[in-house]
Specification:
Elements: E1 6-11, E2 16-22, E3 27-31, E4 37-41, H1 42-46, E5 52-53, H2 64-73, H3 87-96, H4 102-107, H5 110-122, H6 127-194
Antiparallel strand pairs: 1-2, 1-5, 2-3, 3-4
Helix pairs in contact: 2-3, 5-6
């Protein structure tokens, strides 16, 4: 893989994709599953799974040196957020200067999600803003239910296949996913309180 390539690798049996930036020396900068941005050997990043390069349209990426400086400059950061600052947001920002996550955008239409987030920040009480936020609440609820179903299904399969001893490591990964679900629920509740019909703040 070339230096500054945006790499992705499957995680949790393909349930998620993990993203990072190839630093050109056999190491990868990546947000380690909700903890911090690390520099890891490629083998550690891949965990034995196939690694592929994420393609970008011609002319859409920053120069290699800029991408590498961005990646190196954020090593050690601990501001992970599933919806707003995950591993894919980090890799895409290094490549283009813009935070984006196709995985998140596949759960929630980007325009609705961005609009609801902006309205929440600005404390906007216009009627159209309330309608948009309420639609976003319904989509957040769908996202939460979908994540819960995936979590329960994966746990059931793993416990049946591996038994209690090997299941312990997956239980920790499941706890991280549960923490991410809690973030979705918190955002949903904040939106619900902010835009409750008839509420005037």
């Amino acid at each position: 893989m070339p230096a500054a390539a945006h790499l992705q690798v499957p995680r949790q049996h393909g349930l998620f994709l993990h993203h990072g930036i190839d630093l050109g020396d056999g190491s990868v900068a990546h947000y380690l599953e909700g903890r911090e941005i690390l520099r890891s050997p490629l083998a550690e990043f891949s965990r034995g799974e196939p690694v592929c390069e994420v393609p970008y349209p011609a002319g859409s990426c920053s120069p290699v040196g800029v991408t590498l400086r961005r990646a190196m400059g954020r090593l050690g950061e601990q501001n992970y957020n599933l919806l707003f600052n995950n591993c894919e947001h980090f890799a895409h920002w290094c490549k283009t200067g813009r935070h984006r996550s196709a995985q998140v955008e596949s759960w929630l239409p980007a325009a609705v999600f961005s609009g609801a987030r902006l309205l929440l920040r600005q404390n906007n009480h216009l009627e159209k803003g309330k309608e948009l936020a309420l639609r976003s609440l319904a989509q957040l609820d769908q996202l939460r239910l979908s994540l819960q179903e995936k979590l329960e299904a994966e746990l059931a399969k793993a416990e049946a296949r591996w038994g209690e001893e090997r299941f312990a490591a997956l239980r920790l990964a499941a706890q991280r996913l549960a923490d991410q679900l809690a973030e979705v629920e918190e955002l949903e509740e904040r939106l619900r309180r902010q835009f409750e019909p008839g509420e005037d703040r």
